[in-house]
What does this fold into?
Amino acid sequence: MPQSLSHVIVHTVFSTKNRQPLLKELGVRNETFAYLGAAVNTLGCQSFLVGGYVDHIHILSTLSRSISQADFVKEVKRSSSIWFKDEFREPSFSWQKGYGIFSVSESRVPDVKAYIQNQEVHHGKLTFQDEFRQLLRAHNLAFDEKYVWD
It folds into this structure.
């Protein structure tokens, strides 16, 4: 086949370092979501939705065939961290080192979008750590607590 075609959809999740609530102001949160969506698109991926809550991010996007998962997350975090430090005068800002990235079938995109859009309500009952544990279990990923959090 002379043409390479790909349509891979992923749900990427990561938090601020030590889960600091640096996104608690709605304006800061919305600007950060917008920046992250643009950063995803710059990488040749398509951002469907960026959301999250006061201490973490959810990105629903495609993953371009020309970038690895690790490079995708690394570049999104790198560029947004530089931007956040400058935009909000937070010189110590950083994202956590780790992340979760999960495959999403085309038929589940509406469900994942709804999940991301309802983060504020969702986190009235659940911490980010509990949410992340649930995602790991739902995707049958074995994990060790001492290596998940920083």
About this structure: DSSP finds six helices and four strands in the chain. The first helix runs from residue 26 to 42. The mean pLDDT is 93.
